[in-house]
Amino acid sequence: MENLTEVKIEDVKVGTGVEVAVGDNITVHYVGTTADGTVFDSSRQRGEPITFGLNPGQLIQGWIEGIPGMKEGGVRKLVIPGPLAYGENPPPGAGFGANATLYFEVELIAVSN
């Protein structure tokens, strides 16, 4: 049975730069997929990384739990169960349903606080 309260983390590559903490501003490349491998969002496809604050209430909870501890240059895979992703309210046109488990590969490019 799938654990719906825990983000699964796999470090593909451990970075050597600054370590991320909640509240930091980070720049990442990421690819988000559904269980069948369908890409629903990708900074790589857009050709530009994204910068944002790692702040509770502004991101899905799975990122708040799964990103801290990464270091610049690192690549991490996250498996985020539905309740820690978008829960019952996926964004319109997201390409996945309520409580969908989401899969992300995140490359941490930069950290600033």
UniProtKB/TrEMBL annotation:
Record EC number: 5.2.1.8
UniProt keyword annotation of Isomerase present: yes
Domain PPIase FKBP-type: 23-112
Catalytic activity field: [protein]-peptidylproline (omega=180) = [protein]-peptidylproline (omega=0)
InterPro entries from the UniProt entry: PPIase_dom_sf, PPIase_FKBP_dom
UniProt keyword terms in alphabetical order: Isomerase, Rotamase
A Gene Ontology molecular function term of the record: peptidyl-prolyl cis-trans isomerase activity
UniProt xrefs under Pfam families: FKBP_C
Main enzyme class: isomerase
Recorded family membership: Belongs to the FKBP-type PPIase family.
Protein name (record): Peptidyl-prolyl cis-trans isomerase
Natural source organism: Candidatus Harrisonbacteria bacterium CG10_big_fil_rev_8_21_14_0_10_45_28
Taxonomy of the source species: Bacteria, Candidatus Harrisoniibacteriota
